[in-house]
User: Which sequence fits this backbone?
């Protein structure tokens, strides 16, 4: 055998499976998913609870396919129909998975992190990903931190990463593959997600609300796609930003409509990048009192499926 030309892992069986990415809000789960997949399919912001529903990301490499499930961070805050739907989504995301990546922030593990760890079945292989290591001045400080977490349960691997910079994200993938079952790929090699473009469009617009509005307002808003038409390489999308009160509508629109314009422009750019084609995007703002507590409305947006 010629070791130099034999492709690595050529004799290995193909593996495939589903892996949940869990962790408390804001540790970088969605950033990690996007880094793994190499495209922005899950929205991110510096505010907790940006992700509200499950998003899948598919990674195909020679010999293996991993379907990652990004979950909302587990909510311990106030009780609303929306928050309960988000927590169902976390628990649901853990059903039927082959392995879990539990994400924590370097040097931080508090009660909220421990609550997430408590949800993980003992017999499930768990990889601990210690994220945001790029913020550390001295990586040596990770050692005692990792030692403390390693005492909490058995981990299949513990891997310091930086989702933002991409550092060691491939090593994480390398550690995941052996945990999957032998079997054929579950999706086409060029699929990157199972969610549809209509959902992704709503999410990309919602991300701009989290990034461009103040601290409180994003939580009072959501997005509904009214129309999604594809004509060749052009997508025509009509979307509503839904707010809870009249006063919030004025803030979203901004002086002379500037705020709404910035939100729509940034969203359109992201959509064009992700969909690989031109997007014509029209955005309105509408008031719908108590939307976060309206079962019927949330169901229409796809929550609690
Ligand atoms: N410095 C640094 N920031 C990160 C990293 N990963 C994520 N973030 C930031 O942390 C915040 C939360 O990220 P997000 O992916 O939305 O977290 P999630 O709530 O766990 O999905 C965002 O502002 C990200 O840019 C990282 O590796 N390093
Ligand atoms: Mg997220």
Assistant:
């Amino acid at each position: 055998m010629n070791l130099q030309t034999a492709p690595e892992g050529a004799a290995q069986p193909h593996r495939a499976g589903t892996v949940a990415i869990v962790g408390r809000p804001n540790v970088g789960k969605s950033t990690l998913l996007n880094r793994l997949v190499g495209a922005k399919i899950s929205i991110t912001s510096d505010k907790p609870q940006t992700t509200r529903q499950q998003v899948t990301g598919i990674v195909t490499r020679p010999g293996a396919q991993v379907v990652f499930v990004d979950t909302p961070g587990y909510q311990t805050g106030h009780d609303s129909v929306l928050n309960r739907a988000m927590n169902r989504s976390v628990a649901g995301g853990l059903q039927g998975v082959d392995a879990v990546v539990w994400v924590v922030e370097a040097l931080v593990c508090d009660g909220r992190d421990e609550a997430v760890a408590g949800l993980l079945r003992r017999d499930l292989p768990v990889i601990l990903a210690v994220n945001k290591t790029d913020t550390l001045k001295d990586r040596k400080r990770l050692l005692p931190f990792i030692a403390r977490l390693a005492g909490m349960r058995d981990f299949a691997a513990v891997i310091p990463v930086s989702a933002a910079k991409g550092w060691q994200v491939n090593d994480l993938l390398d550690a995941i593959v052996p945990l999957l079952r032998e079997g054929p790929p579950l999706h086409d090699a060029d699929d990157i997600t199972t969610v549809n473009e209509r959902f992704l469009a709503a999410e990309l617009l919602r991300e701009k609300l989290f990034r461009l509005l103040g601290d409180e307002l994003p939580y009072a808003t959501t997005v509904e796609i009214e129309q999604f038409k594809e004509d060749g390489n052009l997508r025509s999308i009509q979307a509503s930003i839904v707010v809870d009160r009249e006063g919030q509508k004025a803030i979203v629109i901004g002086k002379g409509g500037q705020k709404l314009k910035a939100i729509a422009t940034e969203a359109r750019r992201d959509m064009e990048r992700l969909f690989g084609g031109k997007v014509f995007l029209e955005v309105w703002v509408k008031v719908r009192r108590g939307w976060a507590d309206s079962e019927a409305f949330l169901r229409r947006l796809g929550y609690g499926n």
Notes: Strands lie at 15-22, 55-61, 64-70, 99-105, 126-131, 157-160, 181-182, 222-231, 234-243, 278-287. The two ends are 52 Å apart (CA to CA). DSSP finds nine helices and ten strands in the chain. The longest strand covers residues 222-231.
